[in-house]
Amino acid sequence: MTGTGSDHTLRARLRALRPAAFGADPTGERMARILRSPNFADGVFRNPEPARTRPSGSAREFAKIYFDKEARARRAPHGTIPVHPTTVADLARPPATGLRVTWMGHSSVLAEIDGRRVLFDPVWGDRCSPFAFAGPKRLHPVPAPLATLGPVDVVVISHDHYDHLDLPTIKALAGTETLFAVPLGVGAHLEHWGVSASRIRELDWTESTEIGDLRLTATPARHFCGRGLRNQQHTLWASWVVEGPEHRIYHSGDTGYFSGFKDIGAAHGPFDATMIQIGAYSEYWPEDHTDPTPLPGAWPDIHMSPAKGVQAHLDLQGGGPGGVLLPIHWATFNLAPHAWAEPGEWTRYEAEEAGQAVAFPRPGEPFEPAGKLPVDAWWRGVSQPLAHPWRRPRPVEAPAEAPRHDLDLAGDR
Fold this sequence. Notes:
alpha/beta; Metallo-beta-lactamase, Chain A; 7-stranded mixed beta sheet; disordered C terminus
């Protein structure tokens, strides 16, 4: 009995030392539900297609790339990122078309859809890290204080990584009346941080919940999870579909490219707007790399390059251009080896090649997909010039009328 008591005391002390930002592991009925999930096998959640969750190549090679002094300089802006100055005033006016989207930086997006307000992956903290003194630091200020956004009907979380699920932000929202829609298992973190269970809608892939006249569906993604030192893969990751009476939108969360985008589009699309992850991808080109083939970098299967992100949007739209693409998961944090401005520049190129409408708002700049889109390449003013090794040679178009050759070659001999 003494040994058992000592064990309990030791475990209690270890829990007390655990940073609050680590969250909590699923237990009880929540864990039982995870065990019943068709997406959970052999003790972990499974991706819809196999995926490597570690950087490609050796850890030593990746560290050399990531911590190189010159490379680090390329991964940050060379000036002050322009943040939209009138976000709060703009949001005070209702959207004229019934759908307005405001990118707050990284993957945080406020969507006003058919009279409801949906806040995706809100990260208002200064660092995406469990510690206030270390970890990737925000490269631009938040466009507006969280409290000035006004009431939010539902906060949607894609997965529990620190750049998508932020402790100080959740604690601030815990004191409001908002609901939370999260993937299976993530509710354990929220309850640990003070969100009541009655305000949490926890979904497995393909499950839906109704919030007013909105229908929210957790859809598959190709990623992984984890916040603590031991990543148990006991919380699910998801992309999200939000369907209102008049509009439909999609938020990818973090995901590698996979064939399931076509299935999501067939079941729920087409979409008026898609918010697609295009930053912190694997492919990159150092300045002295002249080969058109990119070098392997980080996370080749669980993040998308801009080329794959644009392809995902096309898949979701039924195979062709449609709706508006909003690139997310870039510009706010330094998370990968590629140049800071490269995701914006490369996405712009791929969208033009595909004939796809794409919005490039400054952080905090609202826009309506059915209205005038922000399209200025604003990042060029605060970054060093980029080479464009991803540019493919354009096909040579045949002239409207082929040159005529009126000579009778046989008769001229």
